[in-house]
Write a structure and sequence with these properties.
Number of strands: 15
Radius of gyration: 33 Å
Number of domains: 4
CATH class of the largest domain: Alpha Beta
Oligomer: single chain
Structural class: alpha+beta
Number of helices: 11
Distance between the termini: 65 Å
CATH architecture of the largest domain: 2-Layer Sandwich
CATH topology of the largest domain: Alpha-Beta Plaits
Strand content: 15-25%
Helix content: 25-40%
Order of helices and strands: EHEEHEHHHHHEHEEHEHEEHEEEEE
Shape: elongated
Amino acid sequence: MRVLCLYFSKPIADMQSVAEVFYRATPTIALRAPFALFLEISKCQALYKESTFLARTRATLRRINLEANLAVADDIGTALGLALFRVNDKAKLPIESVSFYVDPLGHSADNTISEMTRTLRLMGVKTIGDFLNVPTRELASRFSRLGLLAHLRAQGQMPLVWPSFSPREQVIERFSFDEEAPAENLQAVYFPLRPMIERVILRLRARGARIRQVDVILQQEHSAPPMKPEQRLALHIQLPYVSGGAIFQILREKLEAHLRQNPLISRITDVRLEVIEAAPYSPTQKNIFDQKKEETDESLFQLVNRLATRLGPDSVFFADPHANYLPEKNWQKVKDSPAERDFSAVTKTGDPSEDASAAWSRVPERPLRLLPKPIPLEWTTKQWEVIHKEILLTDWWEPRFGPLPLERVYFRLASKSPSVPDLWVCQSRDGYLLHGVFE
């Protein structure tokens, strides 16, 4: 057995949430709240070396803004002693660490263990190495079963039975400010908010999920009816593979815009993040031939999420081309990410020897912006020039699209002014209708 101990420099209020961050690495986890966390890593050595795992653990702790002493040993008691006293040799551990072998998880409040430690020091036993040299018969006569149990476990016998560990059903992160110094503005909220987002991402990733919707709750002090005691803001993440930094920037912009319309009535005492909806997460292998592909995709995802935050989750989406002559029916919404689709693939038509560019050259260019409803338009040949004409037939079995006729005649009007874009106009019985703009 190989056990990794994380001994934190400051007490952790919610050790369970920190443990869930490492649930992806190993499911065998034990807690000694509020300072220590134990990970059994012997079954994971086929995936990574101990040095690699230690480096990843330190990187994860920096990501969630925590500091801890790390130590690896063959049992929980030794790992805890090495991490707490910062020594590299089990025999050099002070005799006070003998209690870690009797009760490594800190469940017992018996004073007999501390009395045994003081007696051993009076006997001249100052280290665990000295303790291992004490005869077993003398320990059993002086300290009964506790001394014998500590001696056997220090020798590597009678290993501890690990308690079962399971993640919580709901992912919630909370940070409470000091009662004497609540947050006056959002600047004080941003410092704990960034590691809270990272912790939520890592906890969900350990379960094979990602954020789909997360709510931010700002609890205010001295809030009595009819005033709202808290400010709640929902954030929808449209696409996967968005980093914690991108989510933090989007959330920061949305919080500032929300509080401009709904200002705070008092100081902030608590900040909470509640995951309302999660989506499956499947990590992909990095492209070794295109090192910047992940950065490019992440920039695109960040842009789409910012647009969705400002315009609404249903107003921003990806469109996939659909085989139909009508402009309002030749695309459809898709939910998958562009990283999972190949936009460069073009289906060849006609002659097999014809390349894709020649096939697309026969297709008339369509406007990039299509109006939801055509609007009347008046134009003259003095300002506009007809450069293309196209005739489309609608589906006669379906209702007509507004004022557009069954047989549509489209014109592309090129403006004689270079600053004005081209227009896509349809001819009807009552005149001309503007249906799109070439941007």
